[in-house]
Design a protein that fits this description.
The complex is a heterodimer.
Chain A: H1 18-32, H2 47-53, E1 62-72, E2 75-82, E3 87-96, E4 100-106, E5 129-133, E6 136-140, E7 145-150, E8 155-160, E9 163-168, E10 175-176, H3 188-193, E11 208-210, E12 213-215, E13 224-231, E14 235-238, E15 257-259, E16 281-285, E17 290-295, E18 301-307, H4 314-322, E19 329-336, E20 341-346, H5 351-362, H6 370-373, E21 375-377, H7 385-397, E22 404-407, H8 428-436, E23 441-445, E24 450-451, H9 457-464, E25 479-481, E26 484-487, H10 494-503, E27 516-520, H11 547-569, E28 578-580, E29 592-594, H12 602-617, E30 623-624, H13 636-646, E31 652-654, H14 670-685, H15 687-700, E32 705-706, H16 708-711, E33 725-727, E34 731-733, E35 743-748, E36 754-757, E37 763-765, E38 768-773, E39 781-784, E40 787-791, E41 807-812, E42 819-825, E43 839-846, E44 849-854, E45 867-873, E46 881-886, E47 889-899, E48 904-908, E49 918-923
Parallel strand pairs in A: 21-22, 21-31, 22-23, 23-27, 27-28, 28-29, 29-30, 41-45
Antiparallel strand pairs in A: 1-2, 2-3, 3-4, 4-20, 5-6, 6-7, 7-8, 8-9, 9-13, 10-13, 11-12, 13-19, 14-16, 15-18, 16-17, 17-20, 18-19, 24-26, 25-26, 32-33, 33-34, 34-39, 35-38, 36-37, 36-39, 40-41, 42-43, 43-44, 44-49, 45-48, 46-47, 46-49, 47-48
Chain B: H1 2-10, H2 24-41, E1 65-67, E2 74-76, E3 103-106, E4 114-117, H3 147-252, H4 262-266, H5 281-285, H6 305-311, H7 322-330, H8 339-364, H9 378-416, E5 433-436, E6 440-445, E7 449-454, E8 461-469, E9 479-483, E10 495-502, E11 507-515, E12 518-525, E13 531-533, E14 540-543
Helix pairs in contact in B: 3-9
The chains are: A alpha+beta, B alpha+beta.
Chain lengths: 924, 546
């Protein structure tokens, strides 16, 4: 939902000019259909961005004072001097387990904001071995990661096996703006006496005005920045959220990529403008390794990227062909408005290792409840209880599965969240119970802004307890949002979050039931009349921190507090489900994220893939885009294709703007409704596979939706690929995103690898690009030979009703007649799995034996599900018989059939319980 | 047990995809022979497999074999309802959830039997009132059989419905009568009006002829009168020009020699048209320009009424209506709807133009020195009087024709509306029905328009104008569509779908807005009570297909 007040276009209307009226109308439409760029700052309008971007590379004024070097186990520290100003900083190198290095540069005198609650407590430390020489030292971890520090000018290189992987300040762009007293205007004489070692004053350092908004900047300039270079790399990824390509682009001729959580109305595609969320985390990948870099800072941040390959002229590229190829290199320059320099290097060397290392530091993703992975039906707004009842019934009437029905802001009493419109939703519990009687859930929106109304209990309590964000002069901060004048709780405070969590209890949130879950929107935070539609940077949070310091973290704290509330309402028994629009590093611990207010256009369908991939590799696996597009009305073909694409994306929710036409699946022409039904049912059939992938993500940090290069790291063809992706390591998906498409081009990676069309079992061999015929029914999805995918083929109204249903295993053999896969099972909703009530199975096909074994012997979950069918694809020869044996069952033969033409063997009804370990041997 | 399974596998003869094994064909031959015997043996005593309806029962009668209903495959009878889907058409598992397209039949004895998707079997939800869909072992959902209660309630409900329908049916008959009468009445008055109009047309033609006859002598006399006056004026003007020229000449002829030289003109800066401070020879030859012509006002101003319409800016007023108020509230700094001001300014401007124009026109009618033309002579006056009378009579006759024309058009318009095959919707025409909810009063004026107005006060918003009947082909008169309502800001025109059903009186029972600017009304009317049923026997006495 959402959208700022920018929807309103200013009309000046003259009746004299009838034709002009039409012109205005057209202009009005044009304005409404694209972002109003004037609402958002460019780099040159942001003084610290301009200051940092204007820095020249060259000799850095910073030098390390080797005499101050202190080494203690996992920590190396020393002082750094800015030789131009004489000011000292403190540099720390922390050795961490898993090839991870943390670099911190702090101001020993002035208090600066350090991001709390993101880095996991009790990280495993790793001991440094330090070798000093004059003017430099090398510190090495057991994992063979070395940091070489050169003292003058200050430069750090992170090496692995002797190769420089990342260089810090090699271009000399480090800038640590020192907090200082504001100078009063000086007379010319005084001006002359000014000490030469002080930093120069520039406009915008002590006050900055954007449009009508003044930023008072009481602390003056305090930005931090430095350059990182990645020698040997041509591709970098991550730093979401931007509506841009997956492989990040050079910013030499554009603004830098910006990270500043903003409610952008009708965002533009393919540019570096900031959006709703920020993860200041970048990955670099080449055919030998993957590395990650986290810039842990919650203030407004910009990142410049240049590359000696991308920025090279055609002529120079030709020259390279003649001469020895120059080593590619990506140079990046990061700067934030305040805070400290706090950087993590995740040295991999594989992509999976980087992802694990990153998740170890910032938190493993939540294992979502099963229903959350299924299909969600939303709209701004389902008007009343009858409307909800009707939508619920229509899914059954058309036999389309659905797990969750959503209510947007109109369900509340005047946009007072956690209340109900007493006329339209007079019996909210009955309504939820009725929906829940079919195993379905509901979600209500709960935004962080509180309507300024002393009669509104949440607002009153927040005021009484002093929980609200304050303005720079100490009064309660006020801004405009959906309810009109609103206040914003200071979610950075633990007591505020605890209070918020309590409000979500079943007693306090009147009309809520255990089947009600939550959606946090507008948590950037969105302030309609604030600068850039957000909060004033000089607003005050706890301990005197400014909003400037915490901005990108605010949304995560809202998400965190809401999740906590859901946990508490069940005394920690049930898993939470909370969707958030704003996000930051670590949001993966709390729940799902979506890409905000997109638009019903083919371009937006296309961009959903690079956007979701970027967020995925930044550690947040549970992500999606509004199916159909939030704004405007999708044509039926677009809506159909969007369902098909989103059925293979992690978070699967249809949602639409208040002004759009209704577009629930049954309103499509019958043939398209059938296609959409099939797409949704396919999602449900694959839920065991999805759920297992989410379980793996929760244990390893490896995303569910993956870029092609992750599985095929040395295949350069895949490095910039963003229109096809993998789910887990088994399914290759190439959604159709062009109107009227009759064919798509699919790249099948992997020498000696085979791929099977999941509908036709047609075989494709890698590495090759194939043109595939597509009609409207077709979703091009391919199972990699060598994988096993669990499915549940029975059609149910929602996921909960199929919990005990039997499984089908799809075994796609590789060229060695082998395959393997996993299956994770639990009750789908509680935390009981943490105390062992789960089953995690490794299923393999090898030497003509297919078997299922518990990977984790601690799993004690008792399932009623049994094995209904095994489909083996690519089997060279039919066995004469197949013998099943296992725990608690007598060995016996099972029925099967074999299709000689397409080499598919189907085992009929082995009927073995999925909880036990079993073996099926194929006899010659 | 195990061995038999394998044997059975081998006998899956009809699995087209299965690799056939050598013994198979032999077994098949034997079995086909057996089948024909079994056919004879099978009796009524065979119970229906779970989920099979009585109609389909014969297909499941065979005790050893089952042929998928689409004929694609033959399987063992033991594979029917064995919780594994063997048939492509899902027909082998009517009683389990194993097949994706299966149908489970609930007998629901005491209530209505029905089919449910077989995926709803054993899913923990009671879908059949006889509880037959939830049967699976211990821990299964306990469903109770409430078909009898449902059946009773349903019967009562249906009986009430019948009573209502029957009463409504009677009213409807009355409506039909009324409608037909009204139609006849209208046809009658139309006929009468057309006759009257014919007479009036003739009268008008006659009066027009008389008018022309009276106007031509009038014109001659008036022209003659004006010609005399113009001639007098011409003489007068000539004299005056001459006098003025002499005075001017004297003024320019500085040396009083009877000749004007360029040097003499050079003293007169009014001839310095290029503004160079000197009067050149060229400039001296040019006569001073005429005064600027009277600017003519915009054309539509002359057209009287039309301009009024042009000024009514239908759409823009929409911005002030309630839907946009929310937004206006949210953001008062961006919004500037200053159209009221513009309208005022504009009106003023036009008024001024018009006044100027009239003034100029008056001036034109006057002679030199502002003298008035003398009155017409008596004879001319008489002619004018006669012509005026003729004109008046013509006007009268013309008005009568127009009035009749309008009356005819009005009736034709009413008669062009589809009031149902038997005119049963006629009594609704020209009526309006209201429904009030928490915020608005909604109004339905059938065959005219739909609207809403805020309860708190404020102007009415048109939600649609009569469009057409829009029910499905078999029930066309069950839905009305009203389109082209007031345009939504930045969106479509408002429209309303009215869903009709049988009721004892005409009543608007609900109104909603399922999506922005698209409204849905529920309306009850006896016009739709199409069936009369015998309460005792339940037999339909009379039924009108719509």
């Amino acid at each position: 939902m959402a959208a700022s007040c920018a929807r309103k276009t200013t009309w000046t209307f003259s009746m004299m000019e009838g034709s002009l009226f039409i012109l205005y109308l057209l202009v009005g439409i044009a304005l409404v259909s694209a972002v109003d760029r004037n609402n958002f700052k460019t780099c040159s309008q942001s003084s610290f961005c301009k200051r940092n971007r204007d820095l020249d590379s060259g000799n850095s004024p910073y030098e390390a004072l080797m005499g101050t070097l202190l080494i203690s186990d996992d920590l190396v520290q020393l002082a750094v001097l800015n030789s131009a100003t004489g000011i000292r900083l403190q540099l720390e190198l922390h050795g961490l387990d898993q090839s991870t290095v943390r670099l911190r540069i702090k101001d020993p005198v002035n208090r600066r904001y350090e991001v709390p609650d993101v880095v996991q407590p009790n990280l495993q430390k790793s001991r440094w071995t330090v070798v000093q020489s004059s003017g430099s030292f090398e510190a090495t971890l057991a994992s063979d990661v070395t940091v070489r520090l050169t003292a003058k000018p200050l430069r750090l290189d992170v090496l692995q096996n002797g190769y420089i992987i990342i260089s810090v300040n090699s271009r000399g762009l480090m800038n640590y703006e020192q907090q200082r007293e504001k100078k009063s205007p000086k007379s010319p004489e005084e001006e002359g006496e000014e000490a030469v070692d002080e930093e120069p004053e520039e406009p915008g350092m002590w006050e900055e005005t954007f449009k009508t908004h003044k930023d008072s900047k009481p602390k003056g300039p305090e930005s931090v920045g430095v350059d990182f270079s990645f020698p040997g790399f041509a591709h970098v990824y991550g730093i979401p959220e931007h509506a841009d390509t997956f492989a990040l682009k050079t910013t030499v001729s554009t603004d830098p990529y910006r990270l500043y959580n903003l409610d952008v109305f009708e965002y533009e595609l393919y540019n570096p403008m900031a959006l709703y969320g920020s993860v200041p985390y970048m990955l670099a990948h080449n055919s030998e390794r993957t590395v990650g870099l986290l810039w842990l800072n919650a203030a407004e941040t910009w990142i410049d990227i240049s590359s000696n390959t991308a920025d090279k002229s055609m002529f120079n590229r030709m020259l390279d062909l003649v001469r020895d190829m120059e080593v590619p290199q990506v140079d990046t320059h990061w700067f934030s408005e305040s805070g400290i320099m706090d950087v993590f290097f995740f040295m991999g060397p594989t992509a999976e290792q980087v992802m694990y290392q990153y998740a170890t530091v910032t938190g493993m993703p939540q294992l979502p409840p099963l229903f959350a992975v299924a299909y969600h039906q939303s709209r701004w707004n389902y008007n009343d209880e009858d409307d909800v009842k009707n939508v619920d019934a229509k899914f059954d009437e058309h036999d389309i599965p659905c797990d969750v029905i959503w209510l947007d802001i109109e369900h509340t009493d005047g946009k007072r969240y956690m209340t109900w419109d007493s006329h339209k939703f007079s019996h909210p519990e009955d309504m939820q119970n009725q929906v829940a009687a079919k195993g379905r859930k509901m979600v209500t929106i709960v935004d962080p802004h509180l309507k300024k109304d002393s009669g509104f209990h949440l607002h009153k309590q927040a005021v009484d307890n002093g929980f609200l964000v304050k303005t720079h002069d100490g009064t309660d901060y006020e801004g405009w949002c959906w309810p009109g004048s609103s206040s914003y709780p200071d979610f950075t405070r633990t007591d505020t979050r605890n209070w918020w969590a309590e409000q979500l209890s079943l007693e306090n949130y009147k009309g809520s039931t255990p089947n009600l879950f939550t959606w946090n929107d507008m948590n950037e935070p969105s302030v309609f009349n604030g600068p850039e539609v957000t909060m004033h940077k000089d607003a005050k949070h706890q301990d005197g921190w400014e909003h400037r310091d915490v901005h990108n973290l605010y949304g995560l704290y809202v998400h965190m507090a809401t999740v906590d509330g859901q946990h508490k309402r069940s005394n920690g028994k049930e898993r939470s489900f909370v969707l958030s629009r704003a996000f930051f590093t670590g949001s993966q611990k709390y729940g799902a994220i979506w890409t905000g207010d997109n638009e019903a256009s083919w371009e937006h369908l296309k961009i959903s893939m690079p956007m979701l991939l970027s967020i995925s590799v930044a550690g947040i696996p549970f992500i999606g885009a509004d199916v159909g597009g939030f704004f405007k009305n999708p044509e039926p073909e677009l809506l159909t294709r969007w369902y098909q694409a989103a059925a293979f994306q992690p978070f699967f929710r249809a949602h639409a703007h208040l002004d759009t036409k209704r577009r629930e699946p049954w309103l499509l022409p019958p043939n398209m409704m059938d296609i959409v039904r099939t797409a949704i049912r396919t999602r449900y059939a694959l839920l065991p596979f999805w759920y297992t992938a989410f379980y793996k993500a929760s244990k390893t940090g490896i995303p569910v939706m993956r870029p092609m290069w992750q599985g095929f790291p040395d295949d350069e063809e895949t490095f910039a690929m963003e229109d096809q992706f993998m789910i887990g390591d088994s399914l290759l998906v190439k959604p159709v995103t062009d109107k009227g498409a009759t064919s798509v081009s699919v790249y099948f990676p992997g020498q000696d690898m085979v791929w099977y069309d999941v509908n036709t079992v047609q075989k494709y061999t890698g590495a090759s690009t194939q043109s595939v015929y597509v009609n409207l029914e077709k979703i091009p999805v391919y199972q990699r030979g060598g994988t096993i995918i669990p499915r549940k083929e029975r059609v149910r109204r929602c996921s909960a009703l199929g919990l005990d249903d039997p499984y089908t295993l799809i075994v796609a053999l590789d060229t060695k007649q082998q395959a393997s896969g996993q299956l994770y099972m639990d009750d789908g909703h509680s935390f009981d799995f943490q105390s062992g009530l789960y089953q995690y199975k490794q299923i393999t096909f090898q030497n003509n034996v297919i078997q299922s074994r518990s990977i984790d012997m601690n799993g004690r979950y008792q399932t009623k599900s049994w094995l209904e069918r095994v489909v083996v694809i690519g089997l060279e020869k039919s066995p004469s018989s197949i013998e099943l044996s296992g725990d608690f069952i007598s060995t016996h033969n099972v029925e099967f059939s074999f299709n000689e033409e397409n080499k598919v063997l189907v085992i009929r009804k082995p009927e073995v319980n999925m909880g036990i370990d079993w073996v099926m041997a194929f006899k010659k | 047990m195990m061995f038999r399974r394998v044997e059975r596998m081998a006998a899956c003869v009809s699995d087209m995809k299965a690799k056939k094994m050598s013994v198979k064909s032999l077994i098949t031959l034997v079995l086909i022979g057996l089948m024909s015997i079994i056919d004879v043996v099978v009796t009524e005593s065979v119970t229906r497999p779970r989920g099979v309806s009585l109609t389909n029962e014969p297909f499941y009668r065979d005790s050893q074999w089952f042929t998928c209903l689409d004929g694609s495959r033959q399987i063992f009878k033991s594979q029917v309802n064995d919780d594994y889907c063997d048939c492509m058409d899902s027909s082998d598992e009517p009683g389990t959830s194993a097949c994706p397209q299966g149908k489970f039949h609930c007998n629901n004895r005491g209530f209505k039997p029905k089919y449910i998707p077989s995926s709803r079997v054993n899913d923990g939800i009671c879908d059949c009132c006889d509880a037959s869909d939830e049967y699976k072992g211990p821990g299964a959902t306990q469903c109770s059989n409430n078909c009898r209660e449902l059946g009773r309630a349903d019967l009562e409900r249906r009986q009430q419905e019948i009573i209502l329908m029957n009463q409504g049916f009677d009213v409807r008959q009355e409506y039909i009568k009324q409608g037909i009468e009204k139609k006849a009445e209208r046809e009658e008055s139309l006929k009468k009006l057309r006759e009257e109009k014919e007479v009036a047309d003739q009268l008008k033609d006659e009066k027009e002829r008389l008018k022309q006859e009276a106007e031509s002598p009038e014109k001659e006399a008036k022209d003659a009168h004006k010609a005399v006056w113009d001639a007098q004026q011409a003489v007068l003007r000539e004299e005056r020009d001459k006098q003025r020229a002499n005075e001017a000449f004297d003024e320019l002829d500085a040396d009083r020699n009877g000749l004007i030289t360029p040097d003499e003109l050079a003293d007169h800066k009014e001839f310095d048209s290029d503004g160079d401070g000197e009067v050149s020879e060229e400039e001296a030859k040019v006569t001073p320009e005429d005064p600027s012509p009277v600017p003519s006002p915009p054309e539509d101003v002359n057209e009287g009424d039309a301009s009024e319409e042009d000024l009514d800016m239908g759409d823009h007023g929409d911005m002030n209506d309630e839907d946009e108020e929310d937004f206006a509230d949210e953001d008062d700094e961006d919004e500037e709807f200053d159209d009221d001001l513009d309208e005022g300014e504009l009106m003023e401007k036009y008024a001024k133009h018009r006044a100027d124009y009239e003034k100029k026109k008056e001036v034109k009618g006057k002679g030199e020195d502002g003298e008035e033309m003398p009155e017409y002579d008596e004879a001319t006056k008489k002619l004018i009087e006669v012509a005026d009378a003729a004109r008046e009579e013509f006007k009268e006759a013309e008005k009568q024709v127009n009035d009749l024309k309008k009356s005819i058009e009005d009736i034709e318009k009413l008669m062009n509306v589809d009031l149902g095959p038997q005119q049963e919707f006629e009594p609704l025409q020209k009526q309006c029905y209201e429904y009030t909810d928490r915020e608005y009063t909604y109004k339905l004026c059938p065959f005219d328009k739909t609207s809403q107005r805020p309860k708190a006060g404020g102007s009415e918003t048109q939600l649609g104008n009569w469009g057409q009947w829009e029910g499905p082909d078999e029930n066309k008169y069950s839905k009305m569509k009203y389109t082209r309502g007031r345009n939504c800001w930045n969106g479509p025109d408002r429209s309303t779908l009215v869903i009709l059903r049988c009721g004892l009186e005409n009543k608007l029972v609900s109104a909603s807005e399922p999506e922005r600017c698209t409204y849905e009304f529920q309306f009850e009317t006896p016009s739709l009570c199409t069936t009369k049923t015998d309460v005792e026997t339940g037999e339909i006495d009379s039924h009108d297909e719509l």
